[in-house]
């Protein structure tokens, strides 16, 4: 026969077992919560490390990805302030003799406020254009002159060569077309003359093709006289920042030619 004392002892033992089991479950839950918290903290640390470190491993930094005035990134592009345009550029009575460069390959270095653009000039296919460009460079005609026009839809060119920055300037003379592609195709890196509707209005203005462009042939086309060999990536960065007037207007990142030097290719190291 079980006495009351024995029953109370059994009840105490059952109570102790329940309490011990509850305490054990509480300890397991607390351990699991600590583990979850530690994993969460470790994950957050890894995310923060990726945000802060990976851009630098990829070669970028706050300094290398500076937004322009309109907020467009110009990654890797460092431009000094562009100088003011000329008000009264030099004028000349006639185009120079093409015989001075005929059959030669020249190298033009355009020093700009955003870096150098190097162009190989073809005196064999475009002697009159190359002679004019070399002459104007020697005379300091382009020192300085803003690149006043950027087109970003269908036609992909940066236009330069007018010291006034207005887009109507000339050196005082004009000449006709030469080395015009019959198919109207102007590959990336091409340098060609800009002109009015008059085929004999070539003067000082030229354009750099930063992406393959097709131009009309009905009006006579445009004289190709060179190819960019260095600095096209910089022109592409300026183009990526866009124009301040939609698809056709002044580049948002002001770029200006500071000086132009021209030498024979054979003189290059």
TrEMBL record:
<keyword id="KW-0812">Transmembrane</keyword>
<dbReference type="Pfam" id="PF00160">
    <property type="entry name" value="Pro_isomerase"/>
</dbReference>
<keyword id="KW-0472">Membrane</keyword>
<dbReference type="InterPro" id="IPR029000">
    <property type="entry name" value="Cyclophilin-like_dom_sf"/>
</dbReference>
<comment type="function">
    <text>PPIases accelerate the folding of proteins. It catalyzes the cis-trans isomerization of proline imidic peptide bonds in oligopeptides.</text>
</comment>
<feature type="region of interest" description="Disordered">
    <location>
        <begin position="60"/>
        <end position="97"/>
    </location>
</feature>
<dbReference type="InterPro" id="IPR044666">
    <property type="entry name" value="Cyclophilin_A-like"/>
</dbReference>
<feature type="region of interest" description="Disordered">
    <location>
        <begin position="1"/>
        <end position="29"/>
    </location>
</feature>
<feature type="transmembrane region" description="Helical">
    <location>
        <begin position="35"/>
        <end position="54"/>
    </location>
</feature>
<keyword id="KW-1133">Transmembrane helix</keyword>
<protein>
    <recommendedName>
        <fullName>PPIase cyclophilin-type domain-containing protein</fullName>
    </recommendedName>
</protein>
<feature type="domain" description="PPIase cyclophilin-type">
    <location>
        <begin position="115"/>
        <end position="262"/>
    </location>
</feature>
<dbReference type="InterPro" id="IPR002130">
    <property type="entry name" value="Cyclophilin-type_PPIase_dom"/>
</dbReference>
